[in-house]
Design a protein that fits this description.
This protein is an alpha/beta fold. It has seven helices and 13 strands. The strands form two sheets. Strands 1, 2, 3, 4, 6, 7, 8, 9, 10, 11 and 12 form an eleven-stranded mixed sheet that branches.
Length: 299
């Protein structure tokens, strides 16, 4: 069974200052999403599911329905704030989405095969899709062995501001822990993160999560249980978010799942900040010149 790609594209880009999911970085108007879908098709995926918000879904579909027609099967779903366990009601003044873990759960009724999860605004490179596709094409639907593609920290920084990364601990190729570090920057020849005002160094070669995961349908049931517990504790919190790494940590520590870690040596880039756009355009043009992509992806 060929895998599905689930793209999390419901964010509103508060640091970026615009709808970065559809921002053009390729010479023929392609966004980062286009390159991810193109790499996924080459790796053997045959369906893509977009998780969107109600403010952009119409514009998004107007672009991608004709663009991806006859290229790959597509589905479009909304991450709605009231997609909650029975008995719970979303606070009327909550605006912020419930997080990446929740975004995955909204797809539980339309994905019935092993699937990968990625962010819409991150460029991962062809190697990441090849690594995860090889895993997903071999795993059984009922398996609770999952996977992630990690990146080397020094390859994932922005030149235009601090970033947050999930720093991974592994043992014998398996994930044992993911610790979210915020305000990571390169400073004075070191990479540091801030914690309560202190700057703490991190190994530049540490493996970090860029939210590139490989799951089976079994993950939906496991994640739903974790989400129910999360909502029980946080339903009235206006900013609390349910993240994928949190779910994985809970499952791994309780021995209900394992997670393989594959490492990509590709250099990440994305559009966290508006100033990242110029650098992303330059990187894409370099990859085109080197023959990794055509000038027009979908021609």
């Amino acid at each position: 069974m060929k895998p599905t790609l689930l793209i999390l594209a419901a964010g509103l880009g508060s640091r970026y200052g615009g709808v970065k999911q559809m921002d053009k970085i390729g010479p023929s108007g392609e966004s980062i999403i286009d390159y991810s879908v193109y790499d996924a098709i080459r790796a053997g995926f045959n369906k893509v599911v977009f998780v969107l918000n109600s403010k952009i879904i119409d514009d998004f579909k107007a672009i991608y329905k004709p663009r991806l027609k006859n290229k790959i099967q597509t589905e479009y779903i909304l991450q709605e704030l009231d997609h909650l366990p029975e008995g719970y009601v979303c606070p009327s003044n909550r605006i912020k989405p419930w997080g990446t873990g929740h975004a995955v759960l909204v797809a539980d009724k339309i994905i019935h095969e092993p699937f990968a999860v990625i962010n819409a605004d991150d460029f991962y490179g062809a190697q990441a899709f090849q690594l995860i596709a090889e895993f997903l094409t071999k795993v059984e639907n009922s398996s609770t062995t999952y996977a992630m593609v990690g990146f080397i920290l020094k390859n994932t920084l922005s030149e235009h501001g601090a970033v947050s990364r999930g720093v991974c601990q592994t043992e014998k190729g398996l994930l044992t822990d993911v610790v979210e570090r915020t305000n990571i920057i390169s400073k004075g020849g070191r990479i540091v993160y801030k914690d309560e005002g202190n700057e703490i160094p991190i190994d530049k070669d540490a493996v970090v999560s860029m939210n590139f995961w490989g799951f089976t349908p079994a993950y939906f049931k496991q994640s739903q249980k974790e989400f129910e517990e999360f909502i029980r504790k946080n339903a009235d919190q206006l900013t609390a978010e349910f993240y994928i790494p949190y779910v994985l940590n809970q499952l791994i520590k309780s021995k209900r799942a394992t997670c393989n870690v594959f490492t990509s040596n590709d250099k990440w880039f994305g559009v966290t900040y508006q100033d990242d756009k110029k650098a992303s355009i330059e990187r894409i043009n370099q990859l085109i010149e080197r023959g990794f992509y055509p000038k027009n992806l979908w021609k």
